[in-house]
Amino acid sequence: MVSKAVYAGIAILIIVLVVVAGLLMLRSQPSMHVSPTTTPTEAGVVAEKRVIRVPVGVLVDLSGPTSGVGRDYAKGVEAAFKYFNEKGVYTRDGVRVVFDYWVRDYAYNPTRAEEFYREFRDKYGVWAIIGWGTADTEKLSDSAARDHIVYISASYSAKLVVKPYNFFPAPDYSTQACAAVRWIASKKPGARLVLLYDHNAAYSRSPIPAIKAYAAKVGVNIVGDVHLPLKATEADAEKSIREAMAKNPDYLWCGNTIRSCALAVKAATKLGAKGMFVINVWGFDERFPELAGKGSYGRTAGVSPFRYPETVRDSEGYRMLVEAMKIAGYSDKDVGSMLRFAQGFLNVWLLVQAIERLDSTTLVKGKGAAIKQALESSCQGEPFDFGGLAPPARYCPGRHLAHTTVWIVVLGEDGRLHVEGPIEVTDFDCVKATLEAGG
Amino acid sequence: MDTLYLIANTAFQALVMGFIYAALALGYNIVYRVSKAVNLAEPEIVVFTAYVVFVLSAYYHVPIPAAFTLSLALGFGVGVALERLLARPLRGRPVAALMAATLGAYYVLRGMSMVVSRGFEMGSLGLPETYYSIGPVRASLSDFIAICVSLSVIVGIVLMHRYTRLGIAMRAVSEDAFGASAYGLPVTVLTMLSWGIAGVVSAAAAFALAAKAQVSPMLDFYAIKALAASLLAGLDSIAGVVVGGLVLGFMEQFGSLALDPILPGLGNQLAFIVMLVVLLFKPYGLFGTERIERV
Amino acid sequence: MASKHLLEVNNIEVVYHPYILVLKGISISVPRNSIVAILGPNGAGKTTLLKAISGLIKLERGKVTKGSIIFDGEHIENMEPENISRRGIVYVVEGRRIFKELTVEENIEAVAFAWRRSSRDADIVYKYFPRLKAKRKVRAGYLSGGEQQMLAIGLALLAKPKLLLLDEPSLGLAPKIVAELYQNIRELYEEEKLTILLAEQNARKALEIADYGYILENGRIVLEGPAEKLREDKDVREFYLGVTGRKGYRSVKWYRRKKRWV
Amino acid sequence: MIGLAGQISLAQGALMGVGAYATVYLAEALHISILVAIPIAALFTAFVGVFLGLPSFRLKGYYLAMASIAAQMILEYMFSVIDPDQYTSVPENLKAFGVMQLSMFPMQYYVVLAYAILATLLAVNLGRSAIGRALKAVGDNDVAAEIVGINVVKVKAIAFGISGFYAGLAGGLYAFTVSGIDWTAFTLDTSIEYLAMVLIGGPGRIIWGSLLGAILIRTGWSLLETNLSDMLAALGMSVLASAPKYVVLGSIVIAFLVLEPEGLIGILRRVKEYFRLWPYSY
Q1: 10 Å Cβ neighbour count for C135?
Q2: Boundaries of domain holding C135
Q3: pTM
Q4: pLDDT (tens digit, 9 = 90+) per residue, A110-151?
Q5: What is the greatest pairwise CA distance in chain D?
Q6: Between chains, do D247 and B85 touch, taking CB under 8 Å as contact?
Q7: Is A71 an 8 Å CB contact of chain D?
Q8: Interface ipTM
Q9: Residue C262 falls within a domain, yes or no?
């Protein structure tokens, strides 16, 4: 009995050691898998080619509470890297740039994100990070500034607008929400609006102060402030909708993620609640009609700072997306939402465009700081162009607000998405309102 | 708004959720009866089987009833595997060891759900949207599906335990495995079968839950909440889960109705407060036998 | 192959997880169609011996480490308890092990399920223990001690045992009930052609119906012999049957000079 | 940490959160250095720990598991109420001690190390003290321990207090090392991970077992995580990046429980024993 256990113990130890050793060996191989360093297309040029390898960390949520949208975003990021590595990215002086990237699933846990951040910084010395959520990005923003790492996130939190190294190719949540309020005001002056969101979640809360401030300005009456849990069941959603119905709203703002908002719209259909839903950017995409059912047709709209890829099929950007999907080996079936895919792709594209503006010496010498400079050069100069997928973006030092153009995507009676807008809020600084409300 | 309307609808939703919680709690109790341990892997069995139904129907176009049946079979398989791999080798060791091992299984199952779901794709089961008005109550097809599935599972299990020889033998084993084995009852097989049945119950509850809350990795949260129903009923009670589940459902729905304006979200956490209170004052629940070991 | 003995236990040692040695080299044999009694004080190892034979020590992390147990010509040491009971050894556990939450009828159903017996077969219980028939819808936990013991033995009967292991059937029962119970056991033995291995502290009663007896102390067999011989043995009389032949224990304080064979 | 007195606690993550938030709020309210606030917050967490342990004073270990799950979820909710924006910044100026600024890399490391060594020393001595022995006795069999004359309730209360204290300490140190705390770092998953560490390390050996388990899981987990992620990414399956991690860790926990309940420590001891006796097997 005892000796059996000894053998079992030794066996386990050996297995553990072998696994660890194997992993270490794998690790010691430089990650060359990303792409070949020479391009056969330039046949004839026999001279040795210089290649700049840019290390980039990617933080995504594939197993946590936001994985429902995080998955397509991660695919977009990955496909973008593959696409650009294959197509070739060159600095201003024509030196080839190849990205080495490491994808980490931090499961929406900021502590994990911080661990991976350290790994990126200390082990790989990354120059840039393509990130994800609000809490983690805000948490890491100061470190990123200190370590001169450009941080492009999928969180469009207003707090990140003023952080020196944080960028995103879209207006912030509150600017988007203000656009929604403006759209509501234009549809029905004096409209009654109920806010539905999770009162205990950072993402859901972030645009609320701006909405309240701007609504007062444009004459939209906020008649209710109702809690809708992120982890809702139909029963919970119904409860919230009943509470909202009591306020007799013309419009309802849903500030949660897609699952929770879809349940809310479903519940509204079931209870025969009136009013149009206007849904925050992460709460609405192409999958919404399917998730919320036919009852959502004609009564739902989503806020989007991007063109839905399907609506701009003849654009340059869409062509690139399709090609990136092909290169990464994804079929249409693999990507649930092209919008999320595009969001990931755009974040990488922004990085690529910044690098293309630099010459090789500046890039190698300045690393993250140089990329930041390049991004901020758009303030006075040429904006970054996204081939029709999103409006051109400009970043000014101290205020990284790409643009203020927002579309409202209405789910029509026919079950198809109709784009309205663009809407620009020029008469109010929503970022400032948010920052002042909760510092 | 009409108070009657409000109360009737809240009560109806409480009823639906109550039955779902009851079915989830039943999964815990069946395992507890034979192995005297709480199967902490159940929340992930729920996620796993719910995803199986979703993936089969959404990607492979298997009709929902067939996908559901398959998921039941899979739930049975998972339950049996857990018994074979965890409960049997750990027989005779402290119960805490088995519970810790089920936590290990929780991890394994989560990994498996990720693979099955291709990285937690979310989705709805795509049940037909049909709505009914019964007096002041608005009900949807998914409400009825949730009630029917969970209720039929509970009733089925109760009847089985009451009237079939297999069920009676299971009750015998749950009361005294040692004695049962002395009389030649196939304790090992019955224990395995119980775990398997618990898996089936969890899979059925998962379907009911998915009908009400869509398919997502968050489903485990509700299964953890159902522990409160299980405790309230008494861990070794079978029919008591109905009361436990309904109490929880009503408490949660009316609780969040009353509490949300004051402390948003507290209503959804009431289950855990119930758990603590039950553990402190009535650890054997409302219907559990008081044989629970005391210090 | 049928040897004279239905059961032979050869020099076994039993260890409880993982180091506690409980039985130290015990050998007994049980001839077909006989009642063999194992006597001894509390903690002598009687129960452990029966558990070793029935395989139930496995559930308590015990193990037979030496020696062999041969039943009907087959080695059964360290087999799964279910497999042993399938071979016809049925163990009526000490302390009236029945399913107290179930009714009498359900108790019978459960065991009948295990042996795939029809309800008609189940009537055997009521045949030998007619007292139970009136209480078939009563929860077993509410039966009297004697009735519970009867039910326990009745349940064992459903298994059509070749060898019935009875552990302390008289424990905690009133003398009158004990007499009735032993009467029933005797009838059973005669009519069903059973072989019974009986562990008892109540040596007087046990030796009344047994053919052969072993006396166990501290995990060893200290004395054995045909029942009538044991009944006559001086030491047995003194220590187990309470027959001192002297003026009475009050004056002697016999328990203080209790002799050990080991 | 958790192996104390044979109980399973799944609230360790939340207790760590209590320690972290208490540290920050204390330091801010009293304008004291975080380093001073850490032990006070840890004491506070110890009280919370005792409170959480209340149900198990009357009941067996597995009931504590359930009570601790409930407590974990309630605490999680409370965090989400006090910190709804999921970010409570830890002011840099409170990280100093006297005039020494301690928040930068090498100093930060030394501070944490110092605390860790102190804590371990404390734990080692605790194991040898009368309380430590009483804890073990209760862990083995609380009924028997009571018969021997150990005040089981008191000992259990102490056990929960101690485990709360250490969790609080860990939380405080965590707050010290980061720029801001966020309650999603203290979830049920965190608790489960800590439990796994102890189970793999060796539940009986409180200190060395947990230490070994913690080191192994931390390094092993991150090795698994990074390498598997990269491998799967190379295969174009990065959406599944986390799946193997969960499967492997879960399997290891199960394997240890089933095959080697004494954990790594047990294996090490037996291997040591084996080689000591080698080449004779007895």
Answers
A1: 17
A2: 100-157
A3: 0.83
A4: 878 888 898 899 888 899 999 998 888 888 888 899 899 999
A5: 65
A6: no
A7: yes
A8: 0.79
A9: no
